[in-house]
Amino acid sequence: MSITDKSLKEFILTAKCGEMIGNKEAKDRWHRLGRRIIRVLAEHMGLDRSEYNMWTDKGNDLVPGATVLHSQTIYVKLEISKFSRGIGFVFRKRRGRRDFVGGAAQYMKWESLLDLEDVATRLLQHVKGE
What we know:
The chain has 3 helices and 5 strands. The protein has helices spanning 5-17, 24-44, 116-128; strands at residues 52-57, 66-71, 74-79, 89-93, 106-108. A hairpin with a 2-residue loop joins strand 2 (66-71) and strand 3 (74-79).
């Protein structure tokens, strides 16, 4: 699976400006791109589809919602919130799929998604504690 640079740039721009509030079409597109990004990240991390869950919560008209990767070792949440809009997306280390608290929240800048292979490498290093 792959994703174009143009789609990644669109996803990042939308994440930074939050233009999807009240715009169902833009919100649906952002979540479709988010699911594709999660699948590509999981692939780059060497995760088989059976080794992770992915879900999208679109919230309501007033919130943008989130797309999540949830595996044995890592949790990645692509979400626009008042905390993450200017920072990026959140990730944290996990100790099994039943660990819903995990390690401390870490953030990676939205722009880092332009190189999904590098993001996957950095996430794997985080999991290994490097």
